[in-house]
């Protein structure tokens, strides 16, 4: 049911997430929504969390996974235009932001997931920069996440955005020694 909900959210926004539509798409009956999720609001929260994971996981994996910062930047330079060109992913991002603005419980669930993603990124930064205090690692994680969000937004609006140049500039800033 969650996967069906994510697909419906990408196709038609929050208005498309009705109990009947989700049940029909998933091949289940509407009673199961109440049984498993306590009702449609509970299922919507799980759909939002799954959609956010689908959108965010590749970026967190890129930032938290590789030991080579240059490889991380190369991977991000690939992911950003790909995400911007993925209409379903863009619609999910827009709907998640809109939904979180309207539903405090949904916002709280997504906030927790984003905090966890930033914590994973901060932990990776701490391993790369063991001399940095924890607060600086958390701050760098916030900046990295915000930079990705901003670049994806700009790439959606401007498909000719020079993402590779931005990645190269960031590489120069990160590797510069004082």
Give the rounded overall mean pLDDT. 90
Radius of gyration: 18 Å
Q: Beta-strand percentage?
A: under 5%
What separation lies between the terminal Cα atoms? 53 Å
**Spans with pLDDT under 50 lasting ≥5 residues?**
none
How many domains? The number is 1
Class of secondary structure makeup? mainly alpha
Q: How does the major sheet shape up?
A: none
List SSEs in N-to-C order: HHHHHHHHH
Shape: elongated
Tell me the total number of β-strands: 0
Number of discrete helical segments: 9
Helix content: over 70%
List keywords for this structure.
mainly alpha, transcription regulation, AcrR family transcriptional regulator, 178 residues, elongated, Homeodomain-like_sf, BetI_C, DNA-binding
Q: What this model shows, in words?
A:
This protein is mainly α and 178 residues long. The protein has one domain. The protein is built from nine helices and no strands. Helix 1 crosses helix 4, helix 6 packs across helix 7 and helix 7 packs across helix 8. The protein is elongated and about 60 Å long. The mean pLDDT is 90. One of its GO terms (molecular function) is DNA binding. Keywords: DNA-binding, Repressor, Transcription, Transcription regulation. This is AcrR family transcriptional regulator.
